[in-house]
Amino acid sequence: MDLLIRGSELFDGTGAPPKPGMDVAVKDGRIAAVDQNLAVTAARSIDASGLALMPGIIDSHTHFDAQITWDPSVRPSPALGVSTVVIGNCGFTIAPCRAKDRDLVMRNLTQVEGMSMDAMKAGIDWSFESFPQYLGMLQKRGVVPNVACFLGHSSIRTFAMGADATTRAANSGEIAAMAKIVKDGMTAGAVGFATSTAPQHNGWGGQPMPSRLADDTELRALVKAMASSGRGIFMLTKGNVTDVPYLESIAAETGRPIMIAALLHNPTNPDGTFKDLRQIAAARTRGRELWGQVSCCPLTMDFTLQSPYPVEGFDAWQPLMKLGPDDLRRRLADRNFRQAVRDELARPAGVRLFNGEWDKIEVT
Ligand SMILES: [Zn+2]
Known about the structure:
Elements (H helix, E strand, L loop, with lengths): L2 E8 L8 E9 L2 E6 L8 E4 L4 E2 L3 E3 L22 E6 L14 H11 L4 H7 L7 H11 L4 E7 H9 L10 H17 L3 E5 L19 H12 L5 E5 L6 H11 L3 E6 L8 H14 L4 E5 L30 H8 L2 H12 L18
Parallel strand pairs: 1-4, 1-5, 6-7, 7-8, 8-9, 9-10, 10-11, 11-12
Antiparallel strand pairs: 1-2, 2-3
Helix pairs in contact: 4-5, 5-6
The site of zinc ion has 5 residues, from loops.
């Protein structure tokens, strides 16, 4: 054997109770034997008594696309047991990107993912332009966990349309250019194509993230471009504007699996996520491979009033998202603005990130 891990408390990853005092033997990169007191010798042996052993966690929803260019170990994930990360989720990534669009792309990530502009400016290695060059760069530099990378719709849109990506639908020439990027990206090794139609996904100055401007023609064209490779997952964060039957129609048309995020329980719409999951289950009985991405713990957010993600979907908040700190402070104190937010909260909404649950907000 190449490796013998002795005497651990073994979690096998099936959900079964852990077994104490287990040995695991590895040969040629694969588990060769699992038992108590294995009678084998190995080139390398690790005493794991008093420790737990488990399969690596696959983190299917990360946004390490920028960080991984300066931190190949994508801290803190490996220390938490993660051995595979999926990046490019929601279509928010940094590749492809032209030199002239770098600021635009970074500013969008500060808003939608709460990343520090200073950290990104100091850290991002921009020695790529295309998506295949980005993957090549990661491969050349090396990464600690396994990395699977989605093609990101918003980045592709910005690459094909420039600043117009956040303001309008694409024309047929632009859709063809995007489809080519998707095809080339699949050839280069992407695991699929990711997008977002969630209203709370806004970029710099409150402008919608580019993917939100895509119409049905564009979305179907790009998923088809992915499917033409014969593989790939279509991932989307759907928000409350896209429904499961629509996604089922795309799965039926392309024959590809669809990962639907982020199905988070919301107490003000207690059946919302369960309805989505029931529709997903029904679609699966019809042979469409739809997956609902749920979370094992409640979603929490750190935010500031300069970048208040939970309320950015509010109509009343839109004018504030373009303001600098001084103007913002004045508007936050404005009674009309405050009343407009209260009025909006009082109106029923489908699924809203924040629904006036003030008891859940902690000011620090
Ligand atoms: Zn995401």
